[in-house]
Amino acid sequence: MRALLSVSDKSGLVPFATGLAQQGFELVSTGGTAKVLRDAGLAVKDVSDITGFPEMLDGRVKTLHPVIHGGLLARRDLPEHMEAIAAHDIGTIDLVVVNLYPFRETAAKPNVHAEDVIENIDIGGPSMLRSAAKNFASVWVIVDPADYAHVLEIVQAGGDDLALRTRLAEKVYAHTSSYDAAIAQWFAQQRGEPFPDRYPIAFEKQQALRYGENPQQRAAFYVEKPGAGLGALVQKGGKELSFNNLLDLEGALLAIEPFADQPACAIIKHTTPCGVATGIDALSAYQKALACDPVSAFGSVIAFTVPVDVAAAEAISSLFVECIVAPLFSDEAVEILGRKKNLRVLEGRANWPKGGMDYKRVRGGLLVQDRAPAPIESAQWNVVTKRQPTTEEMVDLHFAWKSVASVKSNAIVLVHDGATIGIGAGQMSRVDASFLAVHKATSVGHITEGAALGSDAFFPFRDGIDHAAAAGVKAIVQPGGSVRDAEVIAAADEHGIAMVFTGERLFRH
Fold first, then answer.
1. Which of 270, 341, 354, 386 is labelled catalytic?
2. Could you report the per-residue pLDDT of 170-201, keeping only the tens digit for each?
3. Which member of 10, 45, 134, 150 is catalytic?
4. Which CATH architecture has domain 222-347?
5. Does 134 participate in catalysis according to the annotation?
6. Is the pLDDT of residue 237 over 90?
7. Residue 355: which pLDDT band, with cuts at 50, 70 and 90?
8. What is the pLDDT of residue 285?
9. Which of 83, 170, 228, 260 has the CA that lies 20 to 30 A from 393?
10. How far is the C-alpha of 455 from the C-alpha of 271, rounded, in Å?
């Protein structure tokens, strides 16, 4: 029996190779892998001893040889295959352990030279993996060190497991496909093309999910880059995350993202905020966000920009919450929240992967776009009304513009003192969204007189302005760009409202 081992990730390699040698396997290896095995006291043959041909071209050519691929691909059940390799003095290779050059890791290094990235495009490794995987009926092929123990257990027992070899072959093709996708992405990036004709993408399974949006739908959670985005969060307690939890977590993190430099809290229901606020600490931000719509906050997902301490944890524990996410939790806060066995507690900063794109699913396809830019600051704003916003109004307009970016379109937010007091989301007309925002505010006792209003897109008619004025709104921020902008501005002037155009739309469908 012969095993060929050639790996970049050498974790677990020596114990596995030792186990193979103890079962009578002849070990064949290359370069650094062979050195590690010899340093561990194992007898190893170089690939060049098997092929009779030296490594060349700085190691680019070493395993690309008929002796290697003949030994991998020969079908043991076909006499003509076995006769052919015997005629050419080719021995079979029964087990292959290969993981590939660290292309992704190299490409991700800051200021890396293109030449160094290209040298980490593995050629021989994928070729051996594909050959061995094609002949999985006879050959063990391992690309993941996590599989060493299971394979060694079966080999030591003198058994066989075709189902496992089939699964390992599947893992090989998924791995090489992902590897090729990363290389294709890098080449597209080098020429500044975010949308190539064929969009190469590969995701890794983070976890299985109990079900999808509804119990009758199967589901799983995949990540584009392990350890990035939602995959970076560490669960500190509570039930397993669900499909809908993950969707709401994305909405919650989107809502607090513009407030990363200050204590902020967002309370999310069905992927859109029912309250967003800033405060002096986690507790005050939570209390202000909750006050926007305490009824809808039941069964919500809550996100913070700052660590959660005992005071905030005690306040949250009185409400039924599905998930809470924050960069850090004190040990006491984890203990308090842990008393609610169903509450999922997630810790960490779920940043966007470097160069990450925004994906939206459609039937039979995928929409790909740049991630939404941060809401622009007031340096680019244009006051279009006769009355200028006051200093206090401008502060609230800033908050309104940042908070409306995470609300489903058509979106209207009413804001006072660094907190939303009314949110109109996902309406078919903007005047309905304005009506809903006012209704939500007044139904829980908020005073809308003097509030600021943010709109994610332009007002197509003056009716939205009239409705806001009737509620006492004194300042509005919106993109502008309607064919009726003049009519809308005139309406604001009639009501003494200060209005700012940003020139940028913030739709979130």
1. 270
2. 999 999 998 899 899 889 988 888 888 888 88
3. 134
4. 3-Layer(aba) Sandwich (3.40)
5. yes
6. no
7. confident
8. 97
9. 260
10. 18
